Amino acid sequence: MTTTLVSLADIEAAAERIRSVAVRTPILDVALDRGGSAAPTIGLKCENFQPMGAFKLRGAYNMIAALAPDRRAAGVITFSSGNHGQAVAFAAARFRIPAVVVMPETAPRVKVDGVRRYGGEVILAGTTSVDRKQKAESESAARGLTMIPPFDDPWIIAGAGTCGLEILDERPDVSAVYVPVGGGGLISGIAAALRGRGSAARVIGVEPSGAPKMSASRAAGRPLRLERTASIADGLVALQPGDLTFSHVQHFVDDIVTVDDDAIVAAVRWLHREARVVAEPSGAAAVAGILQSPSIAASTVAVISGGNVSAESYAKYIS
Q1: Integer angstrom CA distances of residue 186 from 39, 69, 145, 181, 286
Q2: Number of helices and strands (H, E) in the chain?
């Protein structure tokens, strides 16, 4: 495994490693009716159909499966606002090893319950990614657990990149792929897969206007840490991108756009109404980016990154 940018070979190896666990999710075609004579069709890559409800399973399982048996047997730990923690707990359960997940005190109950349902131990620590990372690092050292980072790791990025391989397998002529951006692991992997396969498709990241860490970092030319972030999309509010994910975005990604919370809720509602797809706010961000775009190229795909949302919250979004 490379310590710089992940290669196509890394991603293809990850695809073999996760084949028996991660679902090869479908791309659903939905008309984007804007009142014109011809409604363009967009494809929805439904990662909310993964066994634990989000794309995060790809990277988490890839890394845990690649660990040396003795390290894996000792158990794993991570820090997560929700979906990565559920993915680590789910993957650890498949290997019958301990998993500890450090989550923010503000984590949605549905995601905390998800970690526990898969057998993970939950530790609540602070409200920021820095708080939970520090707690996870101290617990890792004290208990001899292997850290499974949420995004800034080549194994995690390579696992996420398998989503990009599937998009190309099903849509070799794809012209644009919109991807939600939190820490940057998903867009890094997808972009690396597309470029590795020689695709010229535009890769557009979408992040909340209340958490524009990748936009700010690209403007600064280096990973930049924001003082604070806030958004309804709890999975996309990292304070800064990783060094490795930022490097991938700089090399492979065409553009990063921002969407506000109202646009994200509108995308959740649109997905329910037009596609009968249940997406959490973070998972709907890519569609929000498409809905606010003045023009959409033919053969555009939006990645629906997750669907872990409580029934109470979802009812409010779609009503």
Answers
A1: 29, 26, 24, 7, 12
A2: 13, 10
Nearest alpha-carbon partner for 238 in 110, 104, 142: 104
Per residue in 147-161, pLDDT (tens digit) is 999 999 999 999 999
What is the Cα–Cα distance from 45 to 212, expressed in whole angstroms? 23
Instruction: Report pLDDT for 297.
Output: 87
Query: Judging by DSSP bridges, how do beta strands 146-147 and 176-180 pair with one another?
Result: unpaired
Identify whether residues 188 and 286 lie together within a single domain: yes
Residue given tokens 């439904």 in the structure block: 46
| C-alpha closest to that of 8 among 157, 211, 178 | 157
Cα separation, 83 vs 235, in Å, equals 7
Query: Alpha-carbon distance 122 to 114, whole Å?
Result: 10
pLDDT for residue 222: 96
Residue pair 260/210 in contact by the 8 Å Cβ criterion: yes
Beta strands in the chain, from DSSP E residues, in sequence order: 27-31, 41-46, 76-79, 99-103, 121-124, 146-147, 176-180, 202-208, 255-259, 300-304
pTM, to two decimals: 0.95
- Residues 58, 87: Cα–Cα separation, whole Å: 8
Residues annotated catalytic, as ranges = 56, 305
| Same-domain pairing of 179 and 289 | yes
> Does any domain span residue 2?
no
CB 257, CB 291: distance < 8 Å? no
Whole-number Å distance between alpha carbons of 60 and 64: 6
Shared-domain flag, residues 98 and 160 = no
Give the pLDDT confidence of 15-64 residue by residue, as tens digits: 999 999 999 999 999 999 776 667 789 999 999 999 999 999 999 999 99
